């Protein structure tokens, strides 16, 4: 526990973090990777370049400082981050490295304003926060290992099938090389792939949502190929998977993780909304719900650029046909090609959403951040309570509130 004086000092720095948080975290990553380049085998380089990781860390540090006297209030956030840490293989020995470089970054950015008292208080606070993460993650490692079919660390999987779903999305069906059981998972969770493409100095890790219902003898991930656009370089891992990995090749996988999951205990109608490759967790949720039977109804709404970018359309249409009493599916194309049919052209907006769904449903959504912000804004305007709004970010957590007002 932290003493009262330390808590007061930490809370006094909250306004400073609000202003200088991202500058501090950018400095932190630069210092840490310079001092410990081996950690580049764990961190997503693209998220570093795009500023997503520093922003996410700045938000986490700010939240921890603001709640330093009641850390239990941010435990859900802690658990979400810890899920990703476990999936990436973060170990207790990494935390002192992070702490040392974070304190050095605070001192560098704030200069004389970072007094010895402030640095000492943050050192104490970081120790408490790190202990919380280490404890939570230890339980997660143990749970993943002891689960039926589970394991710790990395396990080799063979690409049993590679299926092109659209011009930009391909599915990979993965079976364990050792032929043994695989761990079950909750619909909405992800696995983490570790690869070292030829010519790359470091290994690269990526989380990919499982795109099929659990209970299969394989894991399925459906990966969007991230091509170079303007100044944005091509995705190292996605292009490697699309262009180089073939059936029969082996990939290293960590056990399923994640806290974005379909609540299967409810009977409320479900509305699933996805944009682009954000369909992956939604398809897993939808398949699971329909396989369970019962009377729970689902509305599935998918937005894509056009028909050639629309993955799994035939599969969803078949599900809607077989389960017409429980599932209604809609397809929205931003710019459909000549001759392509869809249920709506352009974007999902509130008036249209109100015409096809009920505000009394549970809403789950995933996709590009602008898509998610638009959906979140529409649901808030509609009066859907927060406890019935569920979403997942691909990559470091962003904010959906930036454009709410």
From TrEMBL:
The active site is at 95 (charge relay system), 137 (charge relay system). Residues 1-138 form the Globin domain. It holds the Pfam family NAD_binding_1. It catalyses: 2 nitric oxide + NADPH + 2 O2 = 2 nitrate + NADP(+) + H(+); 2 nitric oxide + NADH + 2 O2 = 2 nitrate + NAD(+) + H(+). It is an enzyme of class 1 (oxidoreductase). GO terms for molecular function: FAD binding; heme binding; metal ion binding; nitric oxide dioxygenase NAD(P)H activity; oxygen binding; oxygen carrier activity. Its EC number is 1.14.12.17. Residues 149-405 are annotated as: Reductase. PROSITE patterns: FAD_FR, GLOBIN. Its cofactor is heme b; FAD. Heme b binds at residue 85. It comes from the Bacteria. NADP(+) binds at residues 276-281. The record marks 29 as: Involved in heme-bound ligand stabilization and O-O bond activation. FAD binds at residues 190, 393-396. The record marks 84, 392 as: Influences the redox potential of the prosthetic heme and FAD groups. Residues 152-263 form the FAD-binding FR-type domain. CDD domains: flavohem_like_fad_nad_binding, Yhb1-globin-like. Keywords: Detoxification, FAD, Flavoprotein, Heme, Iron, Metal-binding, NAD, NADP, Oxidoreductase, Oxygen transport, Transport. Binds 1 heme b (iron(II)-protoporphyrin IX) group per subunit. GO terms for biological process: cellular response to nitrosative stress; nitric oxide catabolic process; response to toxic substance. Consists of two distinct domains; an N-terminal heme-containing oxygen-binding domain and a C-terminal reductase domain with binding sites for FAD and NAD(P)H. Belongs to the globin family. Two-domain flavohemoproteins subfamily. In the C-terminal section; belongs to the flavoprotein pyridine nucleotide cytochrome reductase family. Is involved in NO detoxification in an aerobic process, termed nitric oxide dioxygenase (NOD) reaction that utilizes O(2) and NAD(P)H to convert NO to nitrate, which protects the bacterium from various noxious nitrogen compounds. Therefore, plays a central role in the inducible response to nitrosative stress. PANTHER family: FLAVOHEMOPROTEIN. This is Flavohemoprotein.
């Amino acid at each position: 526990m932290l003493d009262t004086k330390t808590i007061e000092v930490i809370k006094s720095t909250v306004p400073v973090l609000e202003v200088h948080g991202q500058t501090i975290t950018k400095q932190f990553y630069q210092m840490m990777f310079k001092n410990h380049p081996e950690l580049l085998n764990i961190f997503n380089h693209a998220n570093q370049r795009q500023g997503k990781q520093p922003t996410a860390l700045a938000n986490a540090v700010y939240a921890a400082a603001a709640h330093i006297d009641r850390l239990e209030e941010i435990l859900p956030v802690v658990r979400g981050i810890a899920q990703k840490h476990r999936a990436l293989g973060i170990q207790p020995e990494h935390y002192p490295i992070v702490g040392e470089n974070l304190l050095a970054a605070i001192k560098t950015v704030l200069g004389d304003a970072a007094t010895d008292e402030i640095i000492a208080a943050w050192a104490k606070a970081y120790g408490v926060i790190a202990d919380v993460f280490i404890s939570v993650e230890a339980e997660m490692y143990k749970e993943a290992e002891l689960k039926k079919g589970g394991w710790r660390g990395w396990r080799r999987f063979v690409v049993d099938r590679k299926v092109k779903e659209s011009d930009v999305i391909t599915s990979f069906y993965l079976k364990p090389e050792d032929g043994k059981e695989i761990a079950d998972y909750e619909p909405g969770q992800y696995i983490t792939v570790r690869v070292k493409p030829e010519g790359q100095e470091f290994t690269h890790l990526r989380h990919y949502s499982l795109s099929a219902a659990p209970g299969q003898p394989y894991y399925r991930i459906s990966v969007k190929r991230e091509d170079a656009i303007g100044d944005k370089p091509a995705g190292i891992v996605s292009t490697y998977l699309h262009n180089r990995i073939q059936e029969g090749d082996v990939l290293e996988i960590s056990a399923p993780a994640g806290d974005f999951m379909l609540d299967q205990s409810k009977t409320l109608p479900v509305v699933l909304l996805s944009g682009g490759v954000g369909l992956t967790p939604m398809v897993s949720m939808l398949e699971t719900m329909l396989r369970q039977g019962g009377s729970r109804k689902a509305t599935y709404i998918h937005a894509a650029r056009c028909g050639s970018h629309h993955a799994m359309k035939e599969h969803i249409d078949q599900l809607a046909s077989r389960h017409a009493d429980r599932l209604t599916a809609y397809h929205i194309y931003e710019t459909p090609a000549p001759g392509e049919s869809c249920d709506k052209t352009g974007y999902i907006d509130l008036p249209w959403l109100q015409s096809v769904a009920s505000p009394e449903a549970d809403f789950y959504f995933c996709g590009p951040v602008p898509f998610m912000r638009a959906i979140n804004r529409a649901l808030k305007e509609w009066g859907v309570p927060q406890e019935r709004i569920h979403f997942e970010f691909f990559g470091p957590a962003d904010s959906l509130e930036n454009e709410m007002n």
